[in-house]
Amino acid sequence: MVSYDDESCGKRQRLLVVANRLPVSAKRTGENSWSLEMSPGGLVSGLLGVATEFETKWVGWPGVDVYDVVEEKALSESLAEIKCIPVFFGEVFDQYYNGYCNGILWPILHHLGLPQEDHNDTNKTFQTQYDAYKKANRKFRDVIIENYEEGDLVWIHDYHLMFLPQYLKEYNKNIKVGWFLHSPFPSSEVFKTLPSRSELLRSLLTADLLGFHTYDFASHFVSTCTRILGVEGTPEGIVDHGKVTRVAVFPIGIDPNRFIKACELPEVRQQMTELKERFAGKKVILGVDRLDMIKGIPQKFLGFEKFLEENMDWRDKVVLVQIAVPTRNSVPEYRKVKDQVHGLVGRINGRFGSVSSLPIHHLDCSVDFNFLCALYAIADVMLVTSLRDGMNLVSYEFIACQEAKKGVLVLSEFAGAAQSLGAGAILVNPWDVTEVSSAIKEALNMPAEEREKRHRVNFQYVKTHSAKKWGNDFMSELHDTFSESDMKIKKIPLGLPQQDVIQRYSKSNNRLIILGFFGTLTGPMNNHNEDLDLKLNPELKGALKALCNDPKTTVVVMSRSGKNILEKIFGEYNIWLAAENGMFLRDTSGEWVTYIPENMNLDWVDGAKNVFKYFTDRTPRSFFEASETSLVWNYENADVEFGRAQARDLLQYLWAGPISNASVDVVRGKHSVEVHAMSETKGVAVGRILEEIVRKNSVTTPIDYVFCSGYFLEKDEDIYTFFKSEIVSSKVSQETRSTFSSSNHSLKKKNFSSNVLDLKKGNYFSVAIGQAHTKARYVVDSSHDVVDILQKLAVVTTAATSDSFSWSEVYLTRKRNADSKRWIHCINRRELAVGDTELIDM
Ligand SMILES: O=P(O)(O)OC[C@H]1O[C@H](O[C@H]2O[C@H](CO)[C@@H](O)[C@H](O)[C@H]2O)[C@H](O)[C@@H](O)[C@@H]1O
Ligand SMILES: O=c1ccn([C@@H]2O[C@H](COP(=O)(O)OP(=O)(O)O)[C@@H](O)[C@H]2O)c(=O)[nH]1
């Protein structure tokens, strides 16, 4: 985790959290006096759990309209005490919040389509509401600017503030802006209907980081941008004219301890006792939702009605308690849904109730926190039937309160929470009344042992994926994104300076060559008739052998592939092999050493393997590799469009099943999906490997030359910066060096003193293959270029180590590359001497 402390002055990183709603809402208690209460809704609950690592201020609407300057001042002062800064909207509020936000954007985001435009009411046209929306976003901008200090991070929340990133960047392009969407993002087909679609998307793309709850929502967003704006969607995010907007997934959580502790309070225990007495002899099904059409309350009641119809024996043994928290009452659609819900409650209670008992207890109100916890704790079943929901924190809160009871969560598959809690819940399609009814029955009859098992899985998830983690993950990514984009602006990677690479190689005494395997040494695999077995590029064999046999050169192949594959291919070479990103290391003697952490959980592997096999069978020319701790599905040779679609489905299957609660890294490569037990990155592993090399080779002269190249995934690109910092760090004093970078990787690095690594002459070449954006210093177009340079290095090595070297061997392997042929031809003629490379015509 990144530390945000500025050590030099002891200050914490300042953070402005900007959301439509402040965590508290003001209630007028008298003239110029206010009481402040916690605002309802999951966004506020989530944000309350965000870490205290930051010096945080909140910017948002205080929940009341204030039209008088004196009143505004009084309220602002009360809010300032709790670090809240109000935004007052005046007359714009109705058209902004009820109109554009909740009448237009909310239904679109939840796949409900646009409402009918009312041209007779000029206040209700899309245009007037859109203008109000922009005006409200400008009001936010003004308040932020007033309170902004250089270096502040600005974290914007939700669909209310989609123009804010653009407005802030227009004011000052250096403001660090992240934006997170709490609701779902719809498919492009739905978003396309929005008249202002392009402007909204363009504004979002000015942010540095965009976050979503689930992979689905993020990928909908990317494909919407691709289709509507014609920008490029990459695994990193969206690329538009060279600017990268990072898009990533951050599933929100709750503060589980707040709920766990509340359930132990005497007053909550008392409320629990009273509730149990009140519902003695009955099972309690609980629903807690804002009274919003997306929450599927009517569908819930219809499912429950069907259950009562079909299960007579349960009629007087079960009760559904529904807390329907009032919300957005000024939006007509919300009033309609309220009427609909009331109609259904009347009908069902009329049909199945008696003088002494009613099947549905429906409350049109919010409840206080303690009572809510008591309800969660005594419920036997939690019923969530959202038609679409960003996350649904109510499901998390229920699980946190169920340590004693271990009740069952019945959860809509259309809630974001289904991705995270799907393993322990009974998932339902809320539109299928019969399925909801059956799920209720299954939940009520579920044996204790199974309830316990399901609860355990979900409880573990809720405990570990807290709101605090969510906040930290987002902030950490924002921080990194910004430093990366800083780097990108400052330095666009250059083409490889071959001559320099060779000259420096020839002049150094202890060289390290680190190479990726797939896509680096295998060569491009574009030929559809090619054998799919991974093979070493035949053009490399001679060169690699020469390099590996040079006592002044150590060659390491670092791959996500497993031991068996690497061994099969490189068994005959005098080479170091780091399989599964360094979890297995084989030195030149051929012995493997394992670095798998003892507590690594690999329970997910078998289930995931089945999913990989299923998709491999159904995607011609795709294949998958399984190793001890990881699985890689590759569709480079399949039809790319089909492969991509299959990859999306495969990920859904994985998230919904085998890996839903597992500690894994999921990496979506250009043509691959990889699942790895949470492990080190290549950048971290390389430190350890370096130590081993130094130990094993009893290094006496420092490594004075590093060449590192690969077709690496973004997260593994820290391997490039590992050595890069060594160059920088050799320029700074030892003391400064220990605080040089805050990342874990560099902390490991500081152990390497200059008698192990000595790259100060710039003898470090990090070379990415075919990546537009990379942390490497240099970029080459394809693995052919890597082959080419390795062959040239091999020539130098061979010339230096052998008197009777046959140039024709190397020459034969380089038939395809005209430049190289010319170069080798030239060597033949001139009888190259070591150190002579600068004279060669490249
Ligand atoms: O502020 P309101 O208009 O009263 O609405 C309350 C909040 O509703 C939405 O909440 C979403 O955020 C939750 C946390 O991420 C998520 O679990 C849930 O699925 C979403 O519906 C809305 O996005 C917030 O802005 C509102 O504050
Ligand atoms: O009377 C109530 C009942 C519930 N909640 C809270 O409202 C939030 C609902 O969040 P969720 O993510 O489930 O949905 P949202 O309402 O944000 O769409 C949860 O944190 C609940 O604890 C509340 O504030 N008052």
From TrEMBL:
CC terms in the record's Gene Ontology section: cytosol
Tell me its EC number(s), please.
Answer: 2.4.1.15
Query: What GO biological process terms does the UniProt entry carry, in alphabetical order?
Result: trehalose biosynthetic process
* Key words, A-Z: Glycosyltransferase, Transferase
A GO molecular function term, named singly, is: trehalose-phosphatase activity
Q: Does the keyword Transferase apply?
A: yes
Task: Report the InterPro entries cross-referenced here.
Answer: Glyco_trans_20, HAD-like_sf, Trehalose_OtsA, Trehalose_PPase
The family line of this record is: In the N-terminal section; belongs to the glycosyltransferase 20 family.
What name does this protein carry?
alpha,alpha-trehalose-phosphate synthase (UDP-forming)
